[in-house]
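Memo to structure team: turn this sequence into structure tokens by end of day. - J.P.
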Amino acid sequence: RTSVSPTDGSIQISTNTPRTEVTTSVGAGVPWVIDIRDTTVAEINNQSASPLTIANPTGAPLNGQRLVVKIKDNGLAVTLSWGSAWTEFTGASLPSSSGSGKWIYVTAYYDDSSTNWHVVDVKSEPLWKQADFK
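Reply from structure team:
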């Protein structure tokens, strides 16, 4: 990431340090807002209020910037809705509900020309594991 000083015109170059932004949960009717300035992974891990709205990320994204969104409820599924800047690509459908205590990963890349987050992959933890039957 580069920035230009408004006072002396100097250029500052900083490395893209991956950072995880962790949110435990948000209240009913409160959108989950992800600040992507220094975030590469945004995680919400104990959501109980439904619906959960994943708002359009804030900040100044760079063309091609990657964002992974991790969602997990508190054991009871919640309805999910997505801001208008989330665009599904073939084979990657944005989930409409969480996975009853299971992780969902949504991978997106920012596109400057459309100002949208292109969702290219959505994966969820299986609803059961072999260990559940032991």
